[in-house]
Queue: 2 jobs
Job 1
Amino acid sequence: MSQTTQRKLAHVDICLRKKVEARAKGPGFGDCEFVHQALPEVDFSKINIERVFLKKKLSAPFVIEAMTGGYTGAMKINEALAHSAEEEGVALALGSQRAMIESPALIPTYSVRAIAPSIPILGNIGIAQISRYGPARISTAIERIGADALVVHMNPLQEVCQKEGDRNFSGFFKSLEKICSGISCPVIAKETGAGISMETAVKLERAGVAMIDVAGAGGTSWSAVESYRGSGETEFWDWGMPTAQSVVECSQKVKIPIIASGGVRSGHDAAKALALGASFAGAALPFLKKVNSGGSKSLIIELRSWKDELKAAMFLSGAKDLNALSSAPIVITGKTAEALRARGIDPKKFASRQL
Ligand SMILES: Cc1cc2nc3c(=O)[nH]c(=O)nc-3n(C[C@H](O)[C@H](O)[C@H](O)COP(=O)(O)O)c2cc1C
């Protein structure tokens, strides 16, 4: 088994067995509260949560975030994720394709297009790999799995915590620009649990990415995962920008759509993320746990409850569709408000806006 394959297997195993979520701080959604509307003028049964993602209509603005592929057991997980995503009309992101690029025998562990013919499927590669493989090999990897877009993940926290990690990120902005202009599908830039600041978001937009997935702090901690994998107790367990702050920072500074992920744990959290400026919301760990414990059946039930919670939050805030939700008043307090103020964004404008 190659080192890449062993690592992928260990990551899923650790995430399922150990406590890997943030412990000193959350994603910030607890600081955000919708303004309750006692007279909402909305018919719950007519609330529309459909949204177009990469030219395909989703029945809800949800993404099953990138997790796995590249070892035999991954096939079962990806098939269950794909079946659930197709059934519920949400987007599916696959795990890093590095393993299948290094070893083409592993392509079937990512090949779920036949199970999910109608939804957006996202391929995935690490920023450190894009200059190594170049646009041609990456394009082939995307075509092999029939993906609609390439997610490029940036994971400096994980790399710096890994004994064998890539610690030289210089020149990666140029590699990202090259991949954006050198492949035919859209590129989505994504963190893996430490968030994206407004300064980085501006650079990413300039590099030509089509969307940003903030993958902020407050959910799965990759320094925690690496500490279980042998790097020892870590000082950086809770490092990173919480998701709520990251969504506000990015959406205030760039025009491209934002995906909110990292500690999003319910349809209510998703509603808050959408009100803060995201166009889509996603999760990884909770969905992995669902397919592990009860297969696609459990994940389908979970996705349905997310849809119901999203609609309930919209009903109670007076938003009949997702466009209205993006201007529903939401009060930001606590550390998230403090952090936003310190970064030059006035949280009051979210509380005082009108539907
Ligand atoms: C088991 C597991 C494997 C992951 N593998 C990848 C990966 O290959 N590529 C990637 O971009 N993100 C990967 N992630 C990160 C997630 O996509 C996501 O950004 C992060 O876990 C935060 O979301 P969460 O708090 O909902 O888990 C993985 C997450 C988990 C739980």
Job 2
Amino acid sequence: MYRIAELALGAAQSAGATYVDARVVHKSRQDVQVKNGAVDVVASAHSAGIGVRVLCDGAWGFAATCDMADAAVMETAQQAVEIARASARTMIRPVELSPVDAAVDEVSHQAALDPFQVPIAEKIDLLLSCDAAMNVPGVAVRQGSVNCTREEKWFASSEGARLWQERIATGAGIEATAAAAGEVQRRSYPASHGGQKACRGWELVEELALQDHGKRVATEAVALLDAEPCPQGKMDIILTGSQLALQVHETCGHPVELDRVLGTEASFAGRSFLTLDKLCSLRYGSEVVNIVADATVPGALGSFGYDDEGVPAQRVRIVCDGVFCGYLTSRETAPTLGRSSNGCMRADGWNRSPIIRMTNINLLPGGGGALADLIRGTDDGLLMFENRSWSIDDRRLNFQFGCELAYRIQGGEIAGMVRNPSYQGNTPEFWGACDAVCGEEEWQVWGVPNCGKGEPMQVMEVGHGVAPARFRQVTVGVAR
Ligand SMILES: [Zn+2]
């Protein structure tokens, strides 16, 4: 495959490109879903092609093809140069890339059990057993899914980089929806919106033990129908697992993408309140809030060996003792800060140009101990689980999240189930009200497989490591 990539490099350079990179990508995906005791989806897809990105006359050009014949690849490379020349006519300033060592390397996947080798019948049997466990009176819809993705990628640049990377990711989840008298309630495991996903193999699905949680999620969904509505007002809240991961994703991960800050990306609530003047000066959160972007966490969904500019995976500080101190950058944007790229450029397949994407944006564990300790130390509050809805403004400043379930905490003890819980806040005020993050023993990385960005939309797999955290006197109410 390097031969094809090098053919593209040569053709683009002959046509006048001053920089070229070529990515040959093979991507496969398999989805198995069961709904209400029947197989709902068994699907697989495969895609292969080459994308060529060039700089010519100081501007970017990109072209891609799934025709891997020599002539088609060379023509595609020449087309990328033509596009760059055309773009240069309206250029504001020429692109300058921060330097990177041209690496030659191979990075294998981290799956112990290849999920594509597990028979589809075994996947269906697992989901049917979960479905049966969720079949309790009052549950109207039972759903379960497993999916896996494999990507093999050859990256070559005119600077000499030659990188082969292989990646396997596996995901799974179940959910039960109960309905009665106009009320609809859903519970999911291990996370809402499709479950958990990681750069691991079938061993992840085995560890999740989905079938052991079927009855619980179904029973909770039914119990929520008659639960007390969420109280309104100001209250302490404890966020857990995938909900806290989504909180980090929306209010930290997206606003620290430097292309949004510089105004070259604006889709999907796409700007940022974290403007350049705030770097190393804005108090983003309290002193217990420490956030890193870490593409090196083994098995995490946002991990890789090198990004799609050939920059090695890194661990960089984003928030240090509450102070905002770093962005997610690319080779083009990093010089704005006088820095080198921290390796966040990724493309959704061969036919898309890379843009700045989250890696694993992780809230580091704190000194809050176990979740039980946090609950014991809370006099009057809410313990919230799994996301149900969210909204956020264009600058990622004001937000509202609804959760599937909350428990009322009174006098340090769980005091009953609450339905339709929601909370709202302003990003720096909210993180400023964080007074405790649980310790290492509660810390876990959650995969977000469907982060959308760009036009045309690129879907990216990212991750968030979190341990449950408490936020004091947050505005809570009934989700609408
Ligand atoms: Zn996202």
